[in-house]
Please model this.
Amino acid sequence: MTIQLHNAGKRYNRDWIFRNLNYTFQCGKHYAITGPNGSGKSTLLQVLSGAVSVNEGSCSHSLKNAAISPEKIFSYTSLCAPYLELVEEFTLTEFLTFHQSFKPFVGGMTVNAVIDAVHLAHARHKKINEYSSGMKQRVKLAQCILSDTPLVLLDEPCTNLDTAGIELYNQLIKTYCSGRLAVVSSNDIAEYGFCEEVLDITRFK
Ligand SMILES: Nc1ncnc2c1ncn2[C@@H]1O[C@H](COP(=O)(O)OP(=O)(O)OP(=O)(O)O)[C@@H](O)[C@H]1O
Model:
């Protein structure tokens, strides 16, 4: 996946969040979007996900030089973000089985293998609404990083994780993100230390 922003600008009401953004997110590379609270990191990530459109300029997605139409972007994209809800009435096994029915896992991984990869085997039959916040974050990471998509978007991915959880996150990135375009919105080097490129959103005000 390659994403090209050409003179891209996004505003909410009268406030421009970013403007004149010319940037190419190259296939297979890893990027961080940094900037203070409220500067527009999550907004840019939502634009990259195709969920939010720009107000001026363009944001175009392509795969192996073939353009992806805006309504298809979601099927090539995985997103982990604090504002995304899990289906908490489901057990983990039910939730991942449901998820797999429309987005398969990398390398044909089974639901049980995905659960093992984030060390939640002991809780596989527990309803997600009974999980701790760190356990829920591991579910979000599994759902995002282990889905077989060329684009991985991570918004504050280590939210609620302890030291072991952060180590797990880094291991998942190393094992499953090579060759995929990954973009992390964060100000924490522990979350984006693996990225080759850092984009400071405040440059585009
Ligand atoms: N749906 C919306 N409607 C109106 N304004 C919005 C909306 N979403 C975000 N904003 C505004 O856009 C600006 C950028 O918000 P955004 O969440 O992208 O920042 P951020 O850099 O990710 O912040 P943080 O580090 O706090 O997560 C903020 O001023 C916010 O109030």
User: Anything to note?
Assistant: The radius of gyration is 17 Å. Helices lie at 41-49, 92-100, 111-117, 133-145, 163-176, 189-192.
